[in-house]
Amino acid sequence: MTTQALTTEQNETIDGLIQSILDECNASAVAVCGLDGNILAEKSGVASVADFSLANIVALAIGSFSTTKELAHLIGESSFKSVFQKGKKTGILIYELNDEFIIIMLFGEKTTEGLARLYLKSIAPKIEAVLDDAEGQTAGTAGAGAAFEIKKKENA
Are 25 and 122 in contact, with CB atoms under 8 Å apart? Predict the structure, then answer.
């Protein structure tokens, strides 16, 4: 699967789904991204996330998830569906959507791991369906950009 661009409707659908994750799980931030590091959609729920660079978190989370996936192979598993880390005040849940995309959720003390996992498991098929529909789309086929022409300015 290679998704290079989303239509406005697909983007709005994913935005709505990640907003529901923020609301239902009391998450701090949520990002849907490719394993190549591209962030397809992101939303923050609280100001404290401004202290973090979501792009840096995504890059490190992808590395962590990829490493964990290789550990799964070493013990005979095809993959682990999620990676969970919890500190004193903040946690992160990385959830696999398919072979190329993951959801990353940052959350605080008010969110429980079980709720986060359960909710992501219920939302993931909906996001995967949008990504499947977008397979192979380019910016042109997704409706981005209109034909344009550059005209040379004539001397007056």
Answer: no
pLDDT at 128: 94
DSSP state of 143: T
> What tokens appear for 33 in the block?
């991204």
Backbone angles phi, psi at 28, to 5 degrees: -85, -40
**CB burial readout 46-80, b (16+ within 10 A) else e:** eeebeeeebeebbeebbeebeeebeeeeeeeeeee
Predicted confidence (pLDDT) at residue 67 exceeds the cutoff of 80? yes
Q: Where are the alpha helices (DSSP H) in 32-138?
A: 54-74, 113-133
d(CA 134, CA 151): 34
Cβ atoms < 10 Å from Cβ of 138: 11
Map out the domains of the chain with their CATH numbers: 8-133 (3.30.450.30)
Q: Is the pTM of this model over 0.85?
A: no
Q: How many Å apart are CA 43 and CA 27, to the nearest integer?
A: 10
Taking the CA atoms of the chain, what radius of gyration do you get in angstroms?
A: 18
Torsion of CA 66, 71, 73, 79, to 10 degrees: -50
User: What is the rounded distance in angstroms from the CA atom of residue 141 to the CA atom of residue 145?
Assistant: 10
C-beta separation of 3 from 135 below 8 A: yes
Token output for 97: 């959507």
